[in-house]
Amino acid sequence: MEDNSGVFAGETVEEFRTYEDFLDSQIKPLDLFYLEDQELARQLVELGHKASSLEREEFETRKAAAEAFRLASGSQQKKLASTGKELKDNFLRALAEREEANRSGEMTSIIFIRDRNSHGQEISGYIDYSHRLKSEDFEPYFSGKKRLMPKPTDLSFYNWGTQVAKHNASSNYEVITENPSGLLFKCKNDRKTLNVDPEAAPGDSSVRTPVQCDLYVHVVIYDHVTRKPATSSCAPLSN
To answer: What cellular component terms from Gene Ontology apply here (predicted)?
Structure first.
């Protein structure tokens, strides 16, 4: 019998793969002994001869609703990668401050990093923070087990030793290389352009923030606000 929580005979509809599985759960061994036909037993359950019967359409509706609720609950309960971490460096604290906004889409930050790789070669590049957050696990970075470094797959990558240069569009930005003053990044969401030239204004809805830290030679974060949250205004972050 159904109660107010959508439970049938002590079980929830999402526990059953198909409607037939649900009907079978209502059939007792004694039923099959007397009827000697499982399909007939299913029909009796479906026609309502069992107190816990449920029509196929309602079963499918409730199963879909339960799955949607499960997915929504999982999304809401997923904690930030920076939660509970002891952040000893300005750079990691700056990333933590921006994590939720970059995950929700309210902001898309671009991180410029210049440092030396494991081979001692100087590299630099621009990282789409929001894109990387969604494509890899950031807990090792916030825990200090790994260092966030530019990759050849990021928005921009340059190895000063090998002279290898790479440019790639991301889920949030297009890369504009044909510009006399340097790279430009066009936000796919609002089509606004972000200028990373330190001598120029970063552009509408964007702010440039240099970050003094111990982890890298040079770090700058460009925050671009793509939309305002529902409850309060969202201004670009600064240190």
So the answer is: cytoplasm; nucleus
Task: Tell the residue number behind the tokens 């790789």, with chain if given.
Answer: 117
- pLDDT tens-digit map of 71-126: 665 554 468 999 999 998 999 999 999 999 999 999 999 999 999 998 999 999 99
- pLDDT grade for 181, boundaries at 50, 70 and 90: confident
Nearest to 142 by CA among 87, 197, 195: 87
Alpha helices in 45-200 (DSSP H): 56-77, 90-104, 129-135, 139-142
Q: Are strands 107-116 and 11-12 parallel, antiparallel or unpaired?
A: unpaired
Q: 59 and 19 in contact (C-beta within 8 Å)?
A: yes
pLDDT tens, residue by residue, 142-153: 999 999 999 999
CA 188 to chain centre: 17
Long-range contacts, 160-165 (Cβ 8 Å, 24+):
160/121, 160/122, 160/123, 160/124, 161/119, 161/121, 161/122, 162/121
Give the distance, in angstroms, between the CA of residue 136 and the centroid of all CA atoms in the same chain: 9
Q: Is residue 27 within 8 Å of residue 9, measured between CB atoms?
A: no
Query: Where do the domains of the chain lie?
Result: 7-77, 90-225
- Phi, psi (degrees; rounded to nearest 5) at 166: -135, 145
Would you put residue 84 in left (φ > 0), alpha (ψ -120 to 50) or beta? left
